[in-house]
Amino acid sequence: MKSSFKYVIILVILSLSGIFIYQLFWITGLYHSRQKQNREEIRMAIKNADHIELFDRADFLSKVTHRQRETSVIADTKGGAALSTRFTDKDSVIPELSVLPLDTNIYHPRYRSQALRNDAGKMLKNTAVKVGNDFSSLGELGLQMQQTLHEVIDSVKPIDLAKFDSILSSHLQKGGLDIRHYTEMWNLEDSSIIASSVPANLNRTEYDLHKWEYTTYHKRAYLVYTEPTRWDTIRMMSGILLSSFLILLILILSFAYMFWFLIHQKTVEQLKDDFTHNVTHELKTPIAITYAAVEAMIHYNITGNKEKTNKYLHICHEELQRLGNMVEQILSLSLERKKDFKLKYEKVNLNELLDKIVEQQAIKSSKPFHVRQEFIPDGIMLEADRTHLYNILSNILDNAVKYSGNNPQIRIEAEESDGSVIIRITDNGIGIEEEHLAHIFDKFYRVSNGKQPPVKGYGIGLFYVRTMIHKHNGTIRVESQPGKGSRFIIILPQTHER
């Protein structure tokens, strides 16, 4: 059993570890994927902010200069294409464009100088896009148009960095990224700063850097510093993290409960073994004594001796009564499992019931004891199952006598309080250690007496007491100190709804 239990623990620990590692691996992968997505969101936000700011300036120039913005696509016979943008008078006639292979410096407007034509040809050649390869080529064409437009417009009207930052903030918030950012515009050809919104005291190492080149011929770029997005990522993953944590917590609690149940079952099995041993011994004793007494009366012809006959009959009566009490308590164990079990409530005079219990306890007890009773008021009535209430109080009183040495002093107090009856039974016995107090009502549990002589029993009396009190909708608790005795406090409803 011990070996099997050890293997079960090892397998459960390995299972939980595997689940935890898999969850951690999956969540970590999701986190990195979300971080990558956030970086892409920021990149697209920069591109879109640049696009909006650029075309806003282009439209402004068109209105101010009364010129028409024209963007031309130039393609060759090999599938290459390039973009060109210019501003012409609105009333002018668009000159004819000749389409030639890109490596021949095409696009020769008649009014341009040779140097300008060479520069334009190089730019178009270097930025040519192969169209038709896949769908992404259309996006590349749009990006090239945006970058080509920068070459024309930036020399006339510089970039409005404040407007760019404002547009970028709006796009980041739309993407769920409420983060601070600062921007620098760099000339990559000579590594000079064109414009900047970065504070002088900013610790750039605490920010993520995103670079976006917005031109192709004269190298220019945005350097955008953003706050790290890890907390935004965690916030976006909060639902997944919470559900994963709850699943893991439920698994851990389930396995913990399984461990507790297995350990508890193991303890119950041990207690059952002890119970069986004790009950077997307890049952054999009265049977053996009764058998011996009857055998003596039969074989030794003592029926003519009235004194001896009465003595043996009295012994038989006591042992059979003891045997009957044991059988009754053992049968009471099944009551807790009966779903159709019902108490038979009736009006009970508590004073009379306790007097009867004390009287019968005095008859069967092997040692004298003294009981003092106090009732407030003098006559207390309550609704209860008479038989089970009798057994409850009889069990507690019997324990008080058994565990109180040679001179038991017992005090029984009862009082009415706010629709309840409170019963206190106090003894001057050996008391109970604090470590045992939480378990004395458990099935088959017996308190070790240490150096004290063993007291007969098998650990179901107080279990029966607690079970029946709970079925009466009452409560029971115990206060005890070793060497100073114990006090059992019972609270029962005075009436019950029918």
Automatic annotation (TrEMBL):
SMART domains given for it? HATPase_c, HisKA
The record's Pfam families line, in alphabetical order, gives: HATPase_c (PF02518), HisKA (PF00512)
Reaction catalysed by this chain? ATP + protein L-histidine = ADP + protein N-phospho-L-histidine
Which SUPFAM superfamilies does the record match to this protein?
ATPase domain of HSP90 chaperone/DNA topoisomerase II/histidine kinase, Homodimeric domain of signal transducing histidine kinase
Q: Which InterPro entries match?
A: BphY/WalK/GraS-like, HATPase_C_sf, HATPase_dom, His_kinase_dom, HisK_dim/P_dom, HisK_dim/P_sf, Sig_transdc_His_kin-like_C
* EC number(s) given by UniProt: 2.7.13.3
**Molecular function terms, GO-annotated:** kinase activity
Give the UniProt keywords, A-Z: Kinase, Membrane, Phosphoprotein, Transferase, Transmembrane, Transmembrane helix, Two-component regulatory system
Q: Which residues cross the membrane?
A: 6-31, 240-263
In terms of superkingdom, the source organism counts as Bacteria
Q: Where is the Histidine kinase domain?
A: 278-496
For this entry, the protein name equals histidine kinase
